[in-house]
Every structure is written in C-alpha cells, then in structure tokens.
Amino acid sequence: MRQDTSSYPLSSVLDEALERARKLGPRPSGVPREGYLDRAERIVRMAASWVDEGGAVVDPWRGDEATYETGRFVGALGGLVGAGRCLDLVELLERTIRRLLDFFRREAMGEDVGTALEFHSKELAWAIWNAGKGLSEELVSDVRSVCSSWDAYRLYRNSLAYRRPSELHNVNTFALAGEAMFRALGLRKDDGFVEKHVPVHLGRFDELGMYRDPGCPVVYDWVSRLNLHTLLRAGYHGPGSEELKKVLRRGAMTQLLLHNSQGLAWFGGRSNQFLFNEMELAPICELVAAELEDPFLAGAFRRAARISLRALDRWLDMDPPRHIKNSFHPAVEWGCDSYGPYAVYLLLAASLMTFAYHWGTDGPEYPIPSEVLDYTLELGPDFHKLFASFGDMNLQWDLKADPHYDATGLGRVLWSDAPPELVLSAPCPSEPKFSLPSWTRPRALSLSCAWYEGRDWTRLAESCPEGWEVQRKPRGLRVVYRLRGREVHEEVEVEGNLLRITWRVPGASKIRAEVPVIATDGETSSEVSISPGGVVVRYRGWTYAVGADGVEVHLLPGSAANRNALYRLVALEAEGDAVACTLEVRRG
After folding, report:
1. What residue numbers bound the domain in which 583 lies?
2. At 96, which CATH number?
3. Predicted confidence band at 503 (pLDDT cuts at 50, 70, 90)?
4. What percent of the chain has pLDDT over 90?
5. Which position among 41, 131, 170, 490 has the lowest Cβ density within 10 Å, counted as fewest Cβ atoms?
C-alpha cells in the first residue's frame, strides 16, 4: 500500500490505477505551466478596457459593476504581475485595488457597501501576496492602514458574529483564505477569527473528503476545498489544521478519481458549466502534485490539472471568449445563474489560473485513473451522484436530482474527444433557476426512460427516487431506482465503443427510452435523421447513432435546454415492461 493513499477509503482503486500508470509511463498533456499565464493574460488584457476612471470593472454586456468583477480582476492581474506578466498594467492594478480598499474602509466604518467582502478579501490578499513589491509606497501604506482598521467579526457578514454555525458554508471560507494571507503578510493581527471558524467547516466533510455546502452542489465542494487549501498554504497551523490537511488530501484523491479524460468538471447543482469550474479543480491538483512524494500520483494530479486547462480552449478561442460552455453570445446569458455575469466568472477563471501557476511545479505527467482503469464510484446520499469510467467513455448519473438544476438519470455521456454536449454533458432541468430564453419550454431531460401508467407517462427524469441501489458488473453496472411503489431497473453494458442500455419497469404495460438529440449550441445546428431503427445525429464532424429493435420512434413535441445547448427528445417506444437501445459515437 502506498503511503500517500493508505488512509483513503478507495485506496485499492487508486493503487491499481497508479500501478498501470507506472507501467505505461509518462503521458504529457502538452500544456506547460506557463499556459495558465498565457490564457489568464489574454482575459485580463481584454478586461483592462472595462475599467472605468474610478477603478470599477464594468461588465461589457450588463453595463455596470454587477457583483464582484473588480475583485476578480484584482486577483487575476495581481497574480500575473507577480509572475512578471502585464507589468504595463500596474497603474490599472493600483486603481482597482483602491476601489476595493474603499469598499473595506466604508464597511469598517459601518456603511453597507452592498457586497459580501468575503469574496473581495481573497482576491485582494492574493494580489498583494504576489504583486505587493511592485506597488507604490503610497498604495502599500494605504493597504496597511485599511487592513488594520477592520474588525473581521463585524466586517464579514457570513461569520459567527451574525450567523449560527449551521448557517456558515462556502462564503465564509473565502474570508478565512483572505484573512490567513493578510495575516501571513503582516497586514492583519492575530484576532482568532480564523481559529474560531475552521472547526465549523470540519464538520461539513463526508467520508470521501467532499465538502457539503447546502444542497451539495458539486461546484461548492471544489470552491470550499480550494479556499481551505489556500488557508493552509498561507501557513495556518491553528486548531483543526492537522485534521484539515487529512480531509483535504482525501477530497483531492476523490477529485482525481472523478476526473475524466477530457478534463471537464462534472455536473451537479448551481454555478455549473462555467469555465471557472475546471479552474477550481486545477489549483488543487497542482498544489497536491507539488506536495506529493510519489512521482506517479503527483504526475497524475499534474496531468489532471493541465488537461482541465486545455479543455477550456474551445470556448476561450471564440470571439468574444465565452465564460460558460456554450456558443451563444455572452450578452444572451444562456445558462447563467443570476449572480454569474460575464465579467465576474470569466475573470474568476483568470484569477484561478494564476493560483494554479504559482502553486504548480514542472515535472512528468502520468495517466489519470479514468484513462487506464474501468471503475465506478458512487458518491453518498448527500451528493447522490454516480460515475463510471470505461476507457474512452465516461458516464455520470444524478440519482435524485434537484429539478432546479438537473434531472434524474444518466445525465452525462462523454466519448473520448467528441464535443461534450453531443449526447449530454449535463441534464436539462424541469424548473431551471438559471437564465434561458422565454421561448424555451423547460423539460427534465436525461438519458432515461418513461412508462405508461393509467392515462399518462411517468418519466424517470422528473422523478425523485426514495432510494436506489447500484450493482457493479464487468464492463457495466445496474441501477435500481425505488419510487412510489415502483422499481426502475437500468442496466448499462459497454462493448468496445458501443453503449447498450436496457430499462425495465416491472408491471408496466408500455415503456419508452428517452434519448436527447442536440438541436443547437448557439453556433452550430445538428442534422437529425429518424428511422424505424433509431436516430442518427450529425454535429461538428461527429455522428451519434442510437439503435433499437422492435420499437416505435417518435420525435416528441417541444424542446429542452440546459446550460450547454438546446435539445429535442426522441422516444423509442415498446410494448411491455422493457426497452433497450444502443448508442455509438464516431467521427464523421
């Protein structure tokens, strides 16, 4: 047993993957560490034109400083300046820092500035941490004066001064990261704020080291763990620090097992499918890679980080660059949460790129587990997600979806380097809380089934199962959903590049497979051919074919949408209680 994984519940899977990686040898991504800076600099130089005379970063599509644009610009530019980039923009960095200092000064004096300073705290501290030596003496003096003026317990509204421990979650971790960096820089006194709040967060982790934010959105597992990694990186050694190190290492191991060969972050809950998602994962991977002694495990983490960076190029290379994984114009805000406008989340991605650069190290890269090993991983009842890796195929289920963000069933099917939205990269929710055009009619959509009861169809995608059971098989698995006195059996088999799925609902008189068909991603529309034997979709140089025998094939009326694209729904209908279909993706 390797010493780096011995305390981890899934150590046997990791060890087998690492042994295979050792035999296969290095697998470089082709993405150098400087690649983080290259991409971040492109974003920041574009955003430099959004800064007004008062130092506010104005979103180019909304036309105002909506939320935290300025803070994210400060963090990104500060990280770049600290790496020797964008030195011609130091004056702009100082102007935007002054804007943030004004927020802190006014809040410390009792004025409500209308933003949660927790988010600004981490970015301001990161900028000073990296670029402080290049700033004017006058500004540095102002930073010292303002930082010494506030009482952390009063300044941060997401703290124990205002909330019960049960009400604290990811927002407070931003303050802990910022305060720890300020303290390490000698800008803040040791007032016990960090020490008092760390124990609260230790109770949020599950046995796999994942952070349970309210509702357990996967993004805020990554966000919270990264902030707490930042806390430790800044030198925190107080109460709970040793336990925190252990649980964060455990969470990093789980993260590595969930990483797919495309480098794309997994779906689930709010704030999902933005480009910053992968850049929450990358700094954790780079940091852990730098700390590990095992060269194969370190190399796997390093490769995971770099392929996540590479995965973003498709959307960053668009004109204008996108901040969310679709091709609709940013002004439309297709798929965006209300708090996730363009400048905020594009600049957050840039800021996080600088974290990954500064924490990263050069060294060999080795295959990640999903590239060399077939396995399934079920997250517990809190996250209710299921993952399966079969070579070039990566699958993800939501077993009990939140209808505001996802749908129950198989919600992701990734094939090698095919466009992730070709089949599905995430489900379509029935009651979306993110922005979609008014002409779309929300409908829950996953790769799942429906069965006829009475006078209507009951759809798995819309259901909220009371429980489930996952049975693992060689090159496949079976999921049994339990809901309202019914059981839904879903069996998945992988044969080479073919995915075969069989659904059975005991007692049903009629059943149908429900298959998503992409219509458009905002830039490219698909070509769809429907025949008695199934459906063929051609999109962006790829073909997605669904086949079935003894079924009636229908294109159902209406459409469905997720953050990535607009979809139609094809039904493969059969008499009796079982239906099966095959899925295959190929180039051309």
Report:
1. 374-587
2. 1.50.10.10
3. very high
4. 95
5. 41
